[in-house]
TrEMBL record:
Ranges in a coiled coil: none
Names of the cofactor(s): Zn(2+)
Native organism: Rothia endophytica
Name this polypeptide is given: 2,3-butanediol dehydrogenase
Lineage: Bacteria, Bacillati, Actinomycetota, Actinomycetes, Micrococcales
Pfam families: ADH_N (PF08240), ADH_zinc_N (PF00107)
């Protein structure tokens, strides 16, 4: 079967590899669509980071490079390994793409398996990936979805779950809450979508006019402001009767954005850092102390996929506006990575398929 394989920095190859078979307790999935994540871009430009090297295997998967990429994907059940009785061939599914040690409690009440030692992701540290025709995944990580939900939109449930968990880390949305999101990239937009679905008034701060318009057109933001045109903290105060935002989400890994959130948050407000920082940040501790700001981190998701799926299936979140491109896996680097690296203002989520019979029209 065809697959996109990560060999090393700036070295991703489209190759023919052996098709997997489902072992006991596994589900074989025919992949429909797979999104390109910012993490994939970092691996391509700066890696290996999450991916193993050629000489150092991942401690849980045991795999070395090359590995198949892709962790944001949807598909159809193609076969069931022995012991899997609660799914059927033909079911539509998405995957919570974790690689976690067998000794870790990943049950429905766990709130910390995503923080376990050596945690990593399918499609980065091994065990196949969504940028392939098929993948075998342990039943625990497979989530059934309604066949009424288009499979292209379903591929965005994984990054949407990141936004869901970020809002959960903030304590959820209370009636009348006003939330400020710093950055309207994919995660910023999807975090805003969760906030809107839960009843918040959402303000987005973003320098790109195209991204601000996407936030407004998709309905995930009530206000989209440019920090190069207005004083964001002052505008937030005007919109909150001088109080400041109740919740704020840092989705850029840019220090000035974090500083802005501290100026715009209300006393005793909550700031959640969603982005991955590749370098140390500076922080004015007096702002944190004198306003009693609650600064929190968030990473990925933990038992959030079921509730995230419900939000989408109920119609409270429409994922279609965020699909800005569809390509064949053969064009992964030239049309996918190149666009997101060099023209990222023009794209939110580019989806990839190995199936040439699928329509690449984003209106479908």
């Amino acid at each position: 079967m065809k697959a996109a394989r990560f060999y090393d920095r700036n070295d991703i190859r489209i190759e023919e590899i052996e098709e997997p078979a489902p072992a006991e307790g596994e589900v074989l999935i025919s992949v429909a669509w797979c999104g390109i994540c910012g993490t994939d871009l970092h691996e391509y430009l700066e890696g290996p980071i999450f991916c193993p090297t050629h000489t150092t295997p991942h401690p849980i998967s045991g795999e070395t490079a090359p590995v198949t990429l892709g962790h944001e994907f949807s598909g159809v059940v193609a076969a069931l390994g022995s012991g899997v009785t609660d799914l059927e061939v033909g079911d539509h599914v998405v995957v919570e793409p974790y690689i976690i040690d067998e000794s870790v409690d990943t049950g429905p009440t766990s709130k910390d398996y995503h923080l376990s030692e050596n945690m990593n992701f399918i499609g980065l540290a091994g065990r196949g990936g969504g940028l392939a025709e098929k993948i075998a995944v342990k039943r625990r990580w497979v989530h059934k979805i309604s066949k009424d939900l288009p499979l292209d939109e379903a591929a965005l449930i994984e990054p949407l779950s990141v936004g869901y968990h970020a809002v959960e880390r903030a304590g959820g949305v209370k009636e009348g809450d006003i939330a400020l999101v710093g950055g309207a990239g994919p995660i910023g937009l999807l975090t805003a979508a969760v906030l809107k679905a839960q009843g918040a008034t959402v303000i987005i701060s973003e320098t790109s006019s195209l991204r601000r318009q996407k936030a407004l057109d998709s309905g995930v933001a009530d206000y989209a402001l440019s920090p190069t045109e207005v004083d964001i903290p002052e505008e937030v105060k005007k919109l909150t009767n001088g109080k400041g935002a109740d919740l704020a989400f840092e989705c850029t890994s840019v220090n000035v954005v974090l500083d802005t959130l501290f100026d715009a948050i209300k006393p005793q407000g909550v700031i959640v850092v969603v982005s991955i920082w590749g370098k140390p940040a500076s922080l004015d501790m007096q702002k944190l102390v004198l306003k009693e700001v609650d600064l929190r981190g968030t990473i990925a998701y933990v038992n959030n996929h079921p509730e995230t799926i419900k939000l989408v299936e109920s119609g409270k979140i429409n994922l279609k506006p965020f699909i800005t491109g569809k390509i064949l896996v053969d064009n992964l680097v030239d049309e996918g990575f190149d666009t997101l690296i060099n023209r990222n203002e023009t794209a939110v989520k580019i989806l990839v398929t190995t199936n040439p019979s699928f329509s690449l029209d984003i209106s479908n």
